[in-house]
Amino acid sequence: MAAQSDSHQSNTFAEAASTLVNELRATFVSGETRNYKWRVSQLKQLYKIAENHEPEIIDALLADVGKPPLETVAYEIAMLKNSCKTAIKELKHWMTPEKVRTSLTTFPASAEIVSEPLGVVLVISAWNYPFLLSLDPVIGAIAAGNAVVLKPSEIAPATSALLAKLVGEYMDNSSIRVVEGAVDETSALLQQKWDKIFYTGNGRVGRIVMAAAAKHLTPVVLELGGKSPVVVDSNSNINLQVTTRRIIAGKWGCNNGQACISPDYIITTKDYAPKLVDALKTELESFYGKNPLESKDLSRIVNSNHFARLTKLLDDDKVSGKIVHGGEKDETKLRISPTILLDVPRDSLIMSEEIFGPLLPIITVDRIEESFEVINSGPKPLAAYIFTNNKNLKEQFVKTISAGGLVINDTTIHLAVHTLPFGGVGDSGVGAYHGKFSFDAFSHKKAVLYRSFFGDASIRYPPYTKTKFRLMKALMTGSIVGIIRAIFGKS
Asked: CA 302 to CA 156: how far, in whole Å?
């Protein structure tokens, strides 16, 4: 009986998802979303959501992940508003067809690249930055002229409910909708035919999304993650206090390590590691006090499942004796203090998966150049960081490390630069967004060639004589000398 009920419920979800997609597709076909005024009006409405509802957004993120209000305002609300302002300001320019050069073979002709919307798109967002990561991709989808379904994460239920409410109140619901729910609802949505799917989350679910998309040949953007390394150079007289503060800001100051671009582990030399650990301890105490479990400036672990996962990483026999700072836990409050582990074996559990929490292992090498081999021996990360004043080391880092993005002498802040693409490579993701890259992610670049009836050349048409053969060959290679020689019968 339960199986029949589950089957009936699944069919109901699938029917509702199909109806929703059909309704949005009808709106898209009407041409409403292609209109510049519509796009700008909806972007302005998105901005109003962030502008008018800051207290509710702060409260929702406090309820979902215990996120400090400053982090919510700075890293979610302000960044979303900046994305809206950039899109509103640049939209006409982004929509303008791009004129391109033509070749001798099509002379006389002109050509352009036209950005057209893909159609009806699905955005599946993550729980760790549930406001920003839900609406930032939607900005790109709207700017490009699409109809959108947003599926917020059920792991952040307060934010999900708030997004459903606010989008329902502020946005054009004939084109932009929010679907709440968990696995069943997401599965029903993935069964539908979309024109693009944008997913933010982990690689395991990313593979499920990609497999579902493949059934309809639907293109995807997958914003995943990985083990983002930090290389700390011991030989270039870096400012150690600034270095440790920036590592802490990127690790524990970003949702207590629950961020896709948080530093996942540090690599430094054996000799330098104790000095680095001491500096990290000093700054951590300065930021979060002697009892960080009571700090209001650290997010909690999102739920008991993630708490258990992180506890398992710490309890691994290979690393349980490697803790040099922190390690305190409060299961009832889902809190884990900033934890540093020194000389962690590379084959330990904590080094086999993305940590996504407040644990920071340090791997030591004899020479700092060996760190590049360590990084490149694993899957390509979403971000990679290095602290050094050595010009050659910076150049080698940029040249040899393949990652979604690199930052020299800081962590995570490339996320805020809208002129840079944000996305992964290999296991850390497919595609990129932010700024115009968001617009491009949800657009098709349509090639358009214009010709008149003037200049019709018989060389294209049979019979294919030797002269035509020589001339066509010269035209295709673009050689003026060859064309002249062919005309005058010279090979």
From this structure: 8
Question: Among all chains, which residue has been given the structure tokens 């029949």?
Answer: 4
Q: Give the pLDDT confidence of 126-178 residue by residue, as tens digits.
A: 999 999 999 999 999 999 999 999 999 999 999 999 999 999 999 999 999 99
Is the distance from CB of 326 to CB of 337 less than 8 angstroms? yes
* Contact in structure between 187 and 6 (CB atoms under 8 Å): no
For residue 29, how many other CB atoms are within 10 A of its CB?
A: 12
Tell me the C-alpha distance between 195 and 147, whole Å.
10
- Contact by Cβ (8 Å): 53, 166: yes
Domain segments of the chain as ranges: 2-224+434-445, 229-423, 457-491
The model's pLDDT over 164-180, given as tens digits with 9 standing for 90+, comes to 999 999 999 999 999 99
CA–CA separation, 253 and 74 (whole Å): 11
Chain mean pLDDT for the chain: 94
Question: In the structure, what pLDDT confidence band is assigned to residue 2 with cuts at 50, 70 and 90?
Answer: very low
Q: Which residue has the tokens 């959108």?
A: 148
Q: SS3 of 383, please?
A: strand
CA dist 474 and 458 (Å) reads 15
Closest to 170 in 3D by CA, of 70, 93, 84: 84
Residues 6+ apart with CB under 8 A from 189: 17, 122, 124, 149, 151, 179
State the CATH class of domain 2-224+434-445. alpha beta
Per-residue confidence band for 34, with pLDDT thresholds at 50, 70 and 90: very high
pLDDT tier for residue 107 given thresholds of 50, 70 and 90: confident
Backbone angles phi, psi at 469, to 5 degrees: -60, -50
Predicted confidence (pLDDT) per residue in 355-364, tens digit: 999 999 999 9
Mean pLDDT of 192-219: 97
Longest dimension (CA), the chain: 90
DSSP string across 248-287: HHHHTTTGGG-STTS--EEEEETTTHHHHHHHHHHHHHHH
SS3 call for 447: strand
The H or E element containing residue 362 is: strand 359-365
Contact 330, 293 (CB under 8 A): yes
Structure tokens at 421: 């693409």
Tokens standing for 382? 């979403």
Active site residues: 223, 260
Q: Are 174 and 30 in contact (CB under 8 A)?
A: no
Query: What's 229-423's CATH class?
Result: alpha beta
Give pLDDT tens digits for 315-355.
999 998 999 999 999 999 999 999 999 999 999 999 999 99
φ, ψ for residue 101, nearest 5 deg: -75, 150
